[in-house]
Amino acid sequence: MSQTLRREAATIYSRLPANPPTGAYAALVHSCRKIFATLSGWSLRSQRRQDLSQLNAHLLNDIGVSQEEATSEARKWFWM
User: Fold this and answer.
1) Do 50 and 73 form a contact (C-beta atoms < 8 A)?
2) Which of 15, 17, 50, 60 is 20 to 30 Å from 8 by CA-CA measure?
3) DSSP letter at 16?
4) Which residues of 15-43 are buried (b: 16+ CB within 10 A; e: fewer)?
5) Over the stretch 49-73, which tens digit does the pLDDT of each residue have?
6) DSSP 8-class letter at 19
7) How far apart are alpha carbons 19 and 37 in whole angstroms?
8) Global pTM value
9) What percent of the residues of the chain are helix, what percent strand, and what percent coil, each to the nearest 5?
10) C-alpha–C-alpha distance, residues 53 and 31, integer Å
11) DSSP assignment, residue 76?
12) Within 13 Å of residue 32, how many CA atoms lie on the same side as its CB?
């Protein structure tokens, strides 16, 4: 998720009413929040894997990850 899209989604999310919604509106708000949380999680996971793939052998050794493990993790789909 791009930074611009993330900012726009956060802005929309922050504009949701603070009072608990009721009825069909409550279900819609709940669904939107779950979708936003899922997309944000996928984006963060993808970014972390990209960062991991760019670490050199010395840094990977410092965190206890082999080059093969880092490569394997970086190749995973964003939703896994």
Assistant:
1) no
2) 50
3) S
4) eeeeeeeeeeeeeeeeeeeeebeeeeeeb
5) 999 999 999 999 999 999 999 999 9
6) S
7) 19
8) 0.64
9) 70, 0, 30
10) 33
11) S
12) 15
